[in-house]
Amino acid sequence: MKHSGMRWITILVVALPILSLISGCSGNTNSSNSLNMASMSDMPSEIQKAPVTVSEAYRFAVANPDALKNVPCYCGCAAVGHTSNYSCFVQEVKSSGEIVFDQHALGCSLCVDIAQSVMHQTQEGKTPQEIRAQIDQTFSQYGPSNMEPVK
Fold first, then answer.
1. pTM score, two decimals?
2. Contact yes or no for 138/51 (Cβ under 8 A)
3. How far apart are CA 87 and CA 69, in angstroms?
4. Separation in Å, CA 31 to CA 14, 50, 57, 60, 143
5. φ/ψ of residue 93, rounded to 5
6. CA angle 78-82-87, nearest 5°?
7. How many alpha carbons fall within 13 Å on the CB side of residue 130?
8. How far apart are CA 8 and CA 25, in angstroms?
């Protein structure tokens, strides 16, 4: 019995580090770990208090403006002057660098879904053209684009 117990301890001592290495390479990563994201502490309190998918989308928008300026939104926000998915999150960046956030995406799941899709496709290494095509294909069913079509 004593030898059997020793054998299990030896197996655990050898197996645990191996299992840790395997799980570290499994590809299951949090989206904020592998993407360029703005700091949560730089976000206004209403964004910090928002659901994770919403706050991640705002953080991604701030850190990756071109990624979201490349894609339209299909929620009907062109009527309020939005010109891309980016403008659902950021109203303007002042010459001082101060960001004026647009609160529209705090209450619009379609805006957030589009940004999350861009985030996932960016993680997959897709090009801006591939991402735009996928966004158009997936979300155009919900309404008119707030951008000019790609030519």
1. 0.77
2. no
3. 8
4. 31, 17, 10, 10, 28
5. -115, 115
6. 150
7. 9
8. 25
Q: Please tell me the distance from the alpha carbon of residue 44 to that of residue 32, in angstroms, as a whole number.
A: 18
Whole-angstrom CA distances from 122 to 9, 25, 73, 100, 109 are 43, 19, 17, 25, 20
DSSP states along 82-109: --SSGGGTEEEE-TTS-EEE--GGGG-H
The DSSP line for 20-85 is HHHHHTS----HHHHS----GGGS-HHHHTS-HHHHHHHHHHHH-HHHHHTS---SSGGGGT--SS
The CA–CA distances, whole Å, from 109 to 50, 85, 112, 113 equal: 12, 12, 5, 6
User: Could you read off the pLDDT tens digit of each residue along the chain, which spans 151 residues?
Assistant: 555 554 544 444 444 444 333 333 333 334 444 899 999 999 999 999 999 999 999 999 999 999 999 999 999 999 999 999 999 999 999 999 999 999 999 999 999 999 999 999 999 999 999 999 999 999 999 999 999 876 6
